Amino acid sequence: MITAYHRPQTLPEALALIARSTPRTLPLGGGTALSHGQVEPVEVADLQALGLNQITKRGNNLELGATATLQQLLENEHCTEALRSAVKLEAPLNLRNAATVAGTIVVCDGRSTFVTALLALDANLTLLHPTSETVGLGEFLPLRAMILPGKLISSVGISASPRLAFEYVSRTRADKPIVCVALAQWPSGRTRLAVGGSGSLPILAMDGAEATGIDVAARNAFHDATDPWGSAEYRMDVAATLSIRCMNALAA
Known about the structure:
By secondary structure, the chain is of the alpha+beta class. The chain is 32% helix and 27% strand.
């Protein structure tokens, strides 16, 4: 239950609110998660006035403001077709118009297509507390419950150097994928493979100097992935096929 609403006008004001343990105060971006209700009473700090909603190309990096919406990213000229596909699958249009980049990362589970793509791209997060620190997405995700309290995500950075391919399989076009695969490859040959579709988080299946064995890596990532939407054996086979399809797309 939300018991109080704050609208800070500056970052220091927002950080002071979020740093409080009593009453507990959570950052409010698009509200798609907080609007579902909280088990415990919380106050919220609305981030709308802080200018964290910009998407900026800086040299070879794309900086996504924490409160930029998924639809804003999808429509941005610097969003690649593969990333656009992952964003579009994350949520329907009405939710994409409200859901923010940072909020999606904070509440994601293993079926998040957007976060799967970000993981393949080796995205990093800038956290304020009140000093600035940068943490890799892969490091942040499994520890987010410990890392995030009292801190504010200000932006998400991804490099424009790697090429990205994204493939998925779902029961229907309206469903979240049963399996999704994102493959990023740098000019140096570095290759990162991330898979999603089950569990609590997307999985980084491979980060190597070359793409040899990506199908094996994809299979191994799903060895214990049985759930109501699909068996581990099915996911292993599909992931291997999709990883090769991604590799072929990048080689074309």
